[in-house]
Amino acid sequence: MTDSKTTRRRNVLKGAAVAAGAMSAPMIAKAQTGPISMRWQSTWPSKDIFHEYALDFAKLVNDMTGGDLKIEVLPAGAVVPAFGLLDAVSKGTLDGGHGVMVYHYGKQNALALWGSGPAFGMDANMLLAWHRWGGGKELMEKLYASIGANVVSFPYGPMATQPLGWFKKPVTKESDMKGLKYRTVGISIDIFTKMGAAVNALPGGEIVPAMDRGLLDAAEFNNMTSDRVLGFPDVSKVCMLQSFHQNAEQFEILFNKTKFDGLPAKMKAIITNAVSAASQELTWKGMDRYSKDYVEMQTKDKVKFYKTPDAILQRQLEVYDQVVAEKSKTNPLFAEIAASQRAFAARTVKWDMDNNVNRRMAYNHYFGKAAPKKA
Question: Is 36 in a helix, a strand, or coil?
């Protein structure tokens, strides 16, 4: 009798559990119906390849989540100005965005160490290695916390060395920079100011109009494709290649931290891995597009490219050291980050130079001697 009663009781409880499950299942499904939508903004004009990179990342995430997360990316100015991205994402006005750390220089000058300056000889990919493996990620989190920014940041997309910029005539010596109304951003503002230029920090979309109106004598932005699309060849026919002022910059993907933390763990893992995938794809796309536009600016736009004189490059390094010393005295986080980067660079740059063969010999062997003209 007891066993029979026990069995009947278990069957009743089992049936109740099944019924409860049948009732609760639609409720769970209903709570999760529909994709999670995010509204983003880039810091770039819609025609710039940089905005294309932002769209590429969004599509990658949207596809990898099977449409469960849908990121919509607007161009610069659609919601806030380019330099207002950090505040907008932190406050939740935007769910995320695509830009560069140096655009937040006014909030915390140590953020410019992610790409504005010579990075102690590292290129952009090495700087990303420092961020991932050398303690940079933890230092960035500490930086953003220090200014109360409610964001999650993913640096990605190593950039090629940026030109010294576009000028009315070739720059042959440091004194040629003195008095020039020149556009740059981040720590480069301090470097070129010390070299005698009158610096004006402008977003990408405002540079060429300012040059056209004579508000700028010279300017740098980033790469062959962006510079061409933005219209630099229309206002200048002289571009100086090679510089240490932004030798190792990368892009930044920003999420509002509250929004990001509320995502399912699987979705956060997809985003994290999509950053790495997009970083490599961006690098490959840039190699293809930048090299094509480099050729076409010479053949179609009649732009003349010159190598920045070594004396100017050396002076940039000397002035950068002065800037780092000055910033380190007033900003302990700046000093901590610079020291961390320097330690990582000491071994990785030496390994890179000792281990990897110089490619110019092979290029000259197959295609003939080629190098930028001397100014």
Answer: strand
Question: In CATH, what number is assigned to the domain containing residue 54?
Answer: 3.40.190.170
Pairing of the two strands 218-219 and 36-42: unpaired
| In a shared domain, residues 51 and 68 | yes
Q: How far apart are CA 202 and CA 235, in angstroms?
A: 16
Q: Are 64 and 141 in the same domain?
A: yes
Model confidence band, residue 22 (pLDDT cutoffs 50, 70, 90):
very low
370 in any annotated domain: no
The total number of structural domains in the chain stands at 2
Spatial contact of 99 and 82, defined as CB atoms under 8 Å apart: yes
Task: Mark whether 241 and 253 lie in a shared domain.
Answer: no
Give the CA distances from residue 243 to residues 13, 56, 119, 227, in Å, rounded to whole numbers and listed in that order. Answer: 75, 28, 12, 16
Residue 204 is predicted with a pLDDT of 85
Asked if residue 126 is part of any domain, the answer here is yes
Q: Which residues contact 167 (CB under 8 A, 6 or more apart)?
A: 180, 217, 218, 236, 238, 239, 240
Q: Which of 214, 222, 210, 193 is nearest to 326 (CA)?
A: 193
pLDDT, tens digit, 9 for 90 and up, residues 78-97: 999 999 999 999 999 999 99
Question: How high is the pLDDT of residue 246?
Answer: 94
